[in-house]
């Protein structure tokens, strides 16, 4: 079997090692405008464990970004709850760092080193000297050592995303929230960044929640994939990827899992339109 539903022995073993880092329980998330009430997700629940690369996957508008914003503490559930290490999330905090899709998330007037050090100093998690040392370490991990003294406008899109990732990881947050960080990159750079993220994760073993609407990206990066239904997002399935000794999903398994998820998300359309996969 390629994908394992929640509640498997793997899950049980993980739970036995300790409780979840993040628990989302029956979370309904809404936006109220003066004219409309938009339900982004409906009673969504899942657990994220230490060192998970947990993927939120679903079609556009199913509430993936809203879920991430709620975990970050920017949106409060109208029903259900979100807790980090058993503490209810009710505001943003340095224990949750976010990386966005946009290239303009860096401070343009600061160098790469100063950008990476900034949250460590601003949050008072580290003194200035230690923050700069840590910044250099993480800049090295994302292979930008030679660019520590340059400014964001001197970097390519992929390099800016690497800086944003280094900045978030350097804070050693309980959880790293990534909202389609590679979606604005060209296909080749995106593929390279996915490999780099995996290799970074093997060095750092941080806990990641990663939003994408790309099935391939989800399988490539995630060890667990939460598939959400179209708007409003509900949990359709929680799948686990099985990896070989090289850390990759074998190509046969990859294809089969991709089909399984495609059926889950678009099965009815495929039958109606007679379209191939
Ligand atoms: N600030 C907002 N005010 C009102 N409605 C919003 C707001 N932000 C998002 N929505 C709505 O909430 C729903 C979920 O949006 P969200 O951005 O979370 O989806 P998504 O799955 O991340 O989509 P995409 O993949 O296109 O980014 C959509 O119907 C969207 O229009």
From TrEMBL:
Pfam family, one: ABC_tran
CDD domains recorded: ABC_NrtD_SsuB_transporters
One of the record's GO molecular function terms: ATP binding
Xref: InterPro entries: AAA+_ATPase, ABC_transporter-like_ATP-bd, ABC_transporter-like_CS, ABC_transporter_ATP-bind, P-loop_NTPase
Annotated SMART domains: AAA
Family: Belongs to the ABC transporter superfamily.
Record protein name field: ABC transporter
Record organism: Telmatospirillum siberiense
Native organism taxonomy: Bacteria, Pseudomonadati, Pseudomonadota, Alphaproteobacteria, Rhodospirillales
